[in-house]
Structure formats: C-alpha cells, structure tokens
Amino acid sequence: MTASKGWPSRTLRIGPASFHLRTPFADVIRDVDSLYRDYPREVDDGIYDYAISAHPDGFLRRWINPKFKLDCDFDPFEMLPLPRRLGLLGFEMGMNLQIAAGYRRHIVLHAASAARGDKAALLIGDSGAGKSTLSAILSYAGGWRHFGDEFALLDISAPQLFPFPRPISLKNESIAAMEAIAPDDRFGPRMENTFRGTIRHLLPPVEAIAAMDAPAQVAVIVSPKFEPGAKPQWRPMTKTETYVRLAASSTNQPMLGEAGFEAIWRCLDAAPAFDLVYGSSDDALELFETLWDHVTS
Amino acid sequence: MRFRAAPRSAYIIRPVDDLTLVYHRGPDTTHVVSPVIVAILDTLYDKVMSITEIADALTHAHEIDDSEGSSLIETVTVRLDEMAKLDLIDRVS
C-alpha cells in the first residue's frame, strides 16, 4: 500500500488501462487488494491513466455514518454519496465511468467478450440480458479466456478485441448460480441492498488475467438473452441490425469520427451475428459452444 | 426550393442487406438509409438541383415509367425533406 496525501491508495493495471484508487477508508483499499490480488499493481512508466478518489462526504462523514463521494478524472454527472460498506462498488463504478467517458485508445463497447485460442466472441445486449452471467459460465464451466463482462475494447485498425478482464459483476440470482460453479476463493464480498440488488464480484481465472495483453480476432457477435424456461435457440441477425446494435452499444465511437465508423464496419464485416435465447446455465453453454463450432468450423 | 449535396468524397457509402450505411464526413454522422436516399444522393453529389430536376434525373437513371411521375415527385419531396433534416444535404433557397 502506498500513501498519497496520507490516504491509503492502490495503482492497478487492467489490460491497456491503469487506475489510481485513493480513499481514507483503509478497509476499502484492503477489499480492492483482495479482489485485485492477481493484477499488476504498477505501471511501466509510473504514470497511471485515471485517478479515482473516494472521499468522505463532509468532514464528519469519515467517522459518523461514513459515506463517500467519488472524485474522478472523467466525472460526467454528479453521483450521490454511497455508504462506506459499498466502497469497493464505488471504485468499480468509478473505473467503469472512466472507461465509458474518457477512454479513446480503442472503440469501447458496452459488451462482454471471451476468447478461445486466437478467436473471440463479442457478447452485446442491454443491461440485465445476461452478458455477465454468460461470460462467467464461459470462463469457469467452458474454459474460455475471459476478456471482460462490462466493456469490450475493439481495435481501431483491425477487427480484434483487447482483453479488459475486470472482476465479473454478478447480480442477484446469478450469484448463487456461479457459486455452484466457481471456486469460493475467487469471489469478492457480498454487497446487499445496492441500487441493483445484491452484487458479488467474481475474479476471473488467473490464466485470463495473465494473458490480458493478448488480443483475439472477432469471430462471432452474439446477443444473449436469458429467459427462464425458454427453449434454447439462435437466430441470425442482419448486418444492418448488427451495425445499429454495435453503434448503440459504443460509448465513444461517435467521438472517434471516421475511424470509429470504419472500426465498427470492419467488425461487422468480419463476424456473423446471432441472437441467442436460453433458459438455463447448462443450455447457455451448450448452445453457445454449438454456435461457436458452427461459425468457426 | 433547391437542394445541394456535398461532393462524393464527403460520404462513405456501405451497402448492408437491403439498406445502406452512409457516413457523412462533415458532421461525422452515420445514417442507415433506404435505396431511394442513396439514389438521390448519387444524383445530387456536388450539385444544386430542384425537386423536379432530381425526379427527372432519377427517371432517366433508373428507367422509371413516366406514368409514375407524380408519385415519384411526392416520394422525392418527402425523402429530400428527411435528408435535409438529417443534414445529409442542404436546402438552397
């Protein structure tokens, strides 16, 4: 742990981005250290990309009914104070915000991704569709290399994805489903009564973190949807539909102008896209791998 | 009312399925458009033309039956209005 203005802090590198987290709440930094124990804690040139501070919401809030507010490099909107017990979640939100609002080295897609060998699957879809759960299942039940469950980083000059393998954010029912599959020591603390219900982070397999600098070519684009009891099936998406969904899922493509347009086009041109509907975790993995074999064989 | 499109080089045209992606370099915007809009753009690149002139050019270029003249003008008028609202083309008074 390093000191910065007397507060505990931690620098983390996750794929191509690095973050400096700082707070007077030492237990929050200990939670960060535990959840991010497999990630590099220094950056090569000593210069991190994004600073995130979780500071007490007022002088007395450090001790009495402690609450914190986030102060980030990219702070597009005012965030409400959070209780100290959600400090780890606050840093997660801060890191998400920096990538969504400030990152420009790749096309940022609100999507999950995973790879097998040097080929990758891009999982797009609305929040709550099941991207995080499916990417956790792929990692721990299917042996896929986890690239990320929140953001996919698309190369600006080639149809390839770069890993950004943050801990997987599991919510509500998906927590128990993954606790039955993944080892106990890969889970972070259980956070109850958040704005999205219960949240528990799942640390990706060590191998995925160790390989986080190795990109993979986009081979398929999938929009997964979990519908309890649904018959597993897939449907090809048209290119137009895929373009619209990819563009809508990007946080920075319009800001990157023509380069952003061409990058999305290359991705569209390189990989077929499918809607995937399934009703259980077992169905999800089997259907996904059948589709993968169909596309890549 | 007349309309003007930028030179061809201001647009990147990429057909997908039955529609077309048009990336407009000036304002850095992307549009998913129908074949009629692509045909109008193709006619109007780097020119200033009236609705009637555009309809005539489309009639010749795409061998449209003359009996469809009035409905073609109606279609072109609606599409030109859409294109102007999207800043794909400019209105010239």
Overall geometry of chain B: globular
Give the biggest beta sheet of chain A.
9 strands, mixed
Structural class of chain B comes to: alpha+beta
Q: Give the low-confidence spans of chain B.
A: none
Helical coverage of chain B, percent range: 40-55%
What is the helix tally of chain A?
A: 8
Query: What is the overall number of helices of chain B?
Result: 3
- Backbone structural class of chain A: alpha+beta
Poorly predicted parts of chain A: none
Q: How many β-strands of chain B, per DSSP? A: 6
- The portion of residues assigned to helices of chain A is 25-40%
Layout: helices, strands, pairs:
The complex is a heterodimer of chains A (297) and B (93).
Chain A: E1 2-4, E2 7-14, E3 17-22, H1 26-35, E4 50-56, E5 67-72, E6 82-83, H2 87-102, E7 107-109, E8 111-116, E9 119-124, H3 131-140, E10 145-148, E11 152-154, E12 160-162, E13 168-171, H4 173-179, E14 187-194, E15 197-202, H5 206-210, E16 216-226, E17 233-236, H6 239-249, H7 257-270, E18 273-278, H8 281-296
Parallel strand pairs in A: 3-4, 9-16, 16-18
Antiparallel strand pairs in A: 1-2, 2-3, 4-5, 5-6, 7-11, 8-9, 8-10, 11-12, 12-16, 13-15, 14-15, 17-18
Chain B: E1 2-5, E2 11-16, E3 19-24, E4 29-33, H1 35-44, E5 48-50, H2 51-61, H3 69-85, E6 89-92
Antiparallel strand pairs in B: 1-5, 1-6, 2-3, 3-4
Helix pairs in contact in B: 2-3
